[in-house]
Design a protein that fits this description.
By secondary structure, the protein is α+β, with helices and mostly antiparallel strands. It is built from 6 helices and 5 strands; from the N terminus they run αββαααββαβα.
Amino acid sequence: MVNDRFIHTKRKHKNKAGKTPEQLDAEKGKFPFTEIHGFKLKEVEWSVPDQKTRKSRRRAFNNVREAFLKHIGETMAPALREMGLTDKEIALVKKGKAPIGYNVHHKLPIHGGGKNEFSNLILMPIGPHDDLHHKVMDPQVAQMQSGETKKVVIPWTDDMVYIDPERKKAAPQKTAFIANALAARNGR
């Protein structure tokens, strides 16, 4: 019987700074993917506002978040259902509250010069939200200070409600299945 301890597997080698080649590429905005969680990677100018501006935008965001949630609750209920929210959770959104496990995300974060405009916001689950930051944005901007500007790659969508790409793929199949079932039931 072969003992797995003695099987040689290649390990990723780290440089003197203790970073893998993948980590170094991420810092430079180079990724082995062009899309993450349905967001396409887009090059933007990341400009770190001064601390006073960032704090002011974060304080103002509390009211904007509530207004944004009310807006999508009233105008985008079908998308919220497709996202997987229940009627009870949609009612919560209509009151300006995010359901547990969801976050209103700035597509271009305040730290990168993003503003509290509805077009810069999206309601999404916390897991994919965190991946957007930790896997794509944070490695590129971790060392940036107020007043610094550089081109970075960020995950981008024009949507205001996040729908998992797997759900999007299943939706046409589900719609076709329902249509076929109704046609069969009606004798067509």
